[in-house]
Design a protein that fits this description.
By secondary structure, this protein is of the alpha/beta class. The protein is built from eight helices and nine strands. It is 34% helix and 25% strand. It has a five-stranded parallel β-sheet, with helices on both faces. It has a four-stranded antiparallel β-sheet with strand order 2-1-4-5, with helices on one face. The protein binds adenosine-5'-diphosphate (ADP) and magnesium ion.
Length: 238
């Protein structure tokens, strides 16, 4: 059914190489998949097969030692690989949000949730007079019934699951068209894993978000994703 419409994002025969010990080594070798508007697509595959590299390539955030050597990443009929840094920044701010792996460590330990959320909102043209209301509504969306209290806390006062939900709220404040979540549940216990995945599903449906969910845990994402693609070491996607 989805095959009849144009994909929102198309990864076409992408190869990614990394420089290691004086040599270039191909890590992702010929990966292709398409992401359709409104769906939740899960990418699974064993650790080290290049899932995170692929996610980073999509938003132009590959580390210095790594680069896309072949293929195209098509978004809005343009090849993202051709973008300069300014356009990539725009893409990350306005179009594709990436929640990076290990992002739980990404919250600033010495700033309250409120301060950090306000900082994120600054990247967008939010109505400054209504910032408090916006923060409350964002935190409500990710399942907090007491936003005022959450805003006053420091990251260490939140559980892993709560921190992940705060990070999701920060992502949502950027109103991305595509949301990429790279292993959003690995640092969480089983109950919080389920909660975060269920929340992603709910946000997909309520906000009509398009989600690329990356996880090495095929079993748990299968339940929530509309489609699952398997990535192999060597990069083959079925
Ligand atoms: N900056 C880098 N320099 C050299 N090699 C890297 C770099 N980043 C990743 N790699 C290599 O790419 C492999 C795949 O990485 P990654 O995309 O993180 O895998 P996954 O997310 O599927 O677990 C790693 O095992 C590592 O060998
Ligand atoms: Mg990874």
């Amino acid at each position: 059914m989805k095959k009849n419409i144009d994909p929102l994002l198309s990864i076409e025969h992408v190869k990614i190489s990394c420089h290691n010990e004086g040599k270039w080594k191909t890590i992702v070798d010929d990966v292709s998949f398409q992401l359709f508007r409104g769906e939740m697509l899960a990418i699974t595959g064993s650790s080290g097969c290049g899932k995170s590299l692929t996610a980073h390539a999509i938003v132009g955030l590959l580390e210095k030692g790594c680069r896309v050597t072949h293929g195209q990443i098509i978004y809005r009929n343009e090849n993202i690989i051709d973008y300069d840094e300014r356009r990539l920044q725009e893409l990350r701010r306005d179009e594709i949000g990436l929640l990076i792996q290990h992002s739980l460590n990404g919250l600033n330990p010495i700033q309250t949730v409120k301060r950090q959320m306000v900082e994120t909102l600054r990247h967008k043209k939010w109505d400054k007079n209504n910032i408090e209301t916006s923060l409350h509504s964002l935190l409500n969306k990710v399942g907090f019934s007491n936003p005022e209290h959450i805003l006053s806390l420091y990251p260490f006062e939140l559980s892993g699951g709560m921190r992940q939900r705060v990070l999701l709220a920060m992502m949502l404040s950027l109103q991305p068209k595509i949301f990429i979540a790279d292993e959003p549940t690995t640092a969480l216990d089983v109950i919080n894993r389920e909660k975060v995945l269920a929340l992603l599903k709910q946000l997909q449906q309520e906000l009509k978000l398009t989600i690329l969910l990356i996880s090495h845990d095929e079993k748990s994402v299968k339940k929530y994703a509309d489609r699952v693609v398997q990535m192999d070491r060597g990069g083959v996607v079925l």
